[in-house]
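quick q for whoever's on today - can somebody do inverse folding on this one?? i tried earlier but teh output was garbage lol. tokens:
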């Protein structure tokens, strides 16, 4: 589908304040499940922390602090109780990678092409590693936008790869096309694996294997110890307008199956040992950018412009139920107890009761309340015509930026104890109770 009028991981923690481990989607398997009480009924905003840019990064929560990046070029450490800033670390270029925390160190990537390790208590640099440089996925005549002969960066390639820490190494993908493994203590290269294009998905690790997708249309399983390829799986291609191609979704692994979404409009389940397709669920032209949540034999994800939330049987791929929303969803779902939490482009956080298969409550960001009406039609759907002008690349970029003024939730929520932490393009990191 063309995205002329369409507005386009991760991170998360283990549950207790005393723990010093946090990573995108909550664990090495990236299942998005939190052993937390959650928020069955929303009561109030505990605090909100304002950065100087958009918060696309998902927070990492560990040792009484939330760590999050901002497009203002900083990573912030915020006290969980008060919402006060403990420190900030400046990279000077936007940080849309979601940090990982392990053994007193915060790891993250920046659009300056560096990967950083920072002391979690002081915010002081421990080491940094220079990649081959960051860039967004690009395609000729992308999304059918003019001019036809021009190769253009994809304005919906919002995220950088979020790191995973395991067995003395930190793993992440890069815009230079590589998947990296660095020594956690020194930052020295352990190995790198080159794919055919940008890698902005985040790696999941299970049974000594690393699972990650690339914009080159392949999904890879690598030996996490040495980076050697175990298998690869081919997804769809689109060499005309580069709309139905590429893997932004980060994978989740459960019971020997790896699950991920794709821009080719399919949601895939592969055998983790062999890479053989077990099933695929087609979304009729709509991207799957969200990283799935997997729990109790079910897998959950959402789509982009069709704005559908799905619950599927994890073994068969059969649809169990779906909920229709009005705005696209890139934010990845988080599960705590019987509720699932997920952000929308409308600037809302939705809490879905999985047992009753309905929305339990919703929270609207400050900017969404203020600016949302100007970008919303009477029926509640996006009014893209207000933001997007002529059929030209510059207008597409400007339109995406305009729509984000309304506090879009691209960040993925993290649930710790009885609080939800989530960022917004209005610049806030919110703590919700």
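ok took a stab at it. sequence:
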């Amino acid at each position: 589908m063309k995205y002329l009028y369409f507005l386009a991981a991760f991170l998360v923690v283990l549950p207790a304040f005393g723990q010093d481990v946090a990573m995108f989607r909550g664990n090495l398997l990236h299942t998005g499940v939190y052993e937390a009480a959650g928020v069955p009924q929303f009561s109030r905003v505990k605090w909100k922390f304002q950065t100087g840019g958009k918060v696309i990064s998902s927070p990492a929560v560990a040792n009484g602090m939330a760590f999050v990046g901002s497009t203002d070029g900083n990573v912030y450490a915020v006290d969980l109780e008060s919402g006060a800033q403990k420190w900030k670390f400046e990279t000077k270029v936007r940080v849309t990678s979601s940090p990982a925390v392990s053994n007193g160190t915060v790891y993250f990537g920046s659009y300056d092409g560096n990967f950083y390790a920072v002391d979690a208590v002081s915010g002081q640099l421990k080491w940094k590693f220079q990649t081959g440089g960051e860039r967004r996925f690009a395609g000729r005549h992308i999304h059918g936008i003019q001019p036809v002969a021009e190769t253009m960066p994809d304005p919906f390639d919002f995220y950088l790869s979020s790191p995973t820490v395991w067995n003395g190494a930190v793993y992440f993908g890069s815009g230079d096309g590589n998947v990296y493994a660095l020594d956690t203590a020194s930052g020295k290269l352990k190995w790198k694996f080159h794919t055919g294009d940008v890698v902005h998905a985040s790696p999941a690790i299970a049974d000594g294997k690393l699972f990650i997708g690339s914009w080159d249309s392949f999904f890879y399983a690598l030996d996490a110890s040495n980076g050697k390829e175990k298998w690869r799986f081919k997804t769809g291609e689109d060499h005309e307008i580069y709309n139905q191609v590429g893997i932004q979704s980060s994978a989740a692994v459960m019971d020997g199956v790896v699950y991920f979404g794709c821009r080719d409009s399919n949601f895939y389940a592969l055998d983790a040992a062999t890479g053989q397709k077990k099933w695929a669920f087609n979304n009729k032209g709509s991207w799957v950018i969200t990283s799935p949540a997997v729990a109790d034999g079910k897998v959950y994800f959402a789509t982009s412009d069709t704005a559908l939330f799905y619950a599927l049987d994890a073994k068969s791929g059969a649809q169990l139920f779906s909920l229709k929303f009005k705005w696209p969803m890139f934010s990845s779902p988080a599960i705590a107890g019987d509720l699932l939490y997920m952000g929308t482009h409308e600037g809302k956080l939705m809490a879905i009761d999985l047992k009753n298969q309905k929305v339990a409550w919703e929270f609207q960001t400050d900017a969404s309340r203020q600016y949302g009406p100007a970008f919303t039609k009477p029926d509640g759907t996006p009014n893209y015509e207000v933001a997007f002008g002529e059929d030209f690349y510059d207008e597409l970029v400007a339109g995406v930026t305009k729509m984000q003024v309304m506090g879009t939730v691209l960040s993925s929520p993290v649930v710790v104890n009885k609080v939800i932490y989530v960022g917004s393009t209005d610049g806030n990191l919110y703590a919700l109770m």
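fwiw Residues 1-18 have pLDDT under 50 and may be disordered. also The chain has three helices and 36 strands. so keep that in mind when u check it
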